[in-house]
Amino acid sequence: MGFPVVRPRRLRRTPALRRLVAETSLEARQLILPVFVREGASEPTPISTMPGVVQHSRDSLRKAVAEAAGLGLGGVMLFGVPEEKDARGSGALDPEGILNVAIADCVAEVGDALPVMADLCLDEFTDHGHCGVLDASGAVDNDATLEIYAEMALAQAAAGVAVVGPSGMMDGQVGVVRAALDGAGHQDVVILAYSTKYASAFYGPFREAVASSLQGDRRTYQQDGANVVEGVREALLDVEEGADLVMVKPALAYLDVIRAVREAVDVPVAAYNISGEYAMVEGAAANGWIHRDAAILETLTSIRRAGADVILTYWAAEVAQRLL
Question: DSSP of 261-318, one letter per residue?
Answer without folding.
Answer: HHHH-SS-EEEEE-HHHHHHHHHHHHTTSS-HHHHHHHHHHHHHHHT-SEEEETTHHH
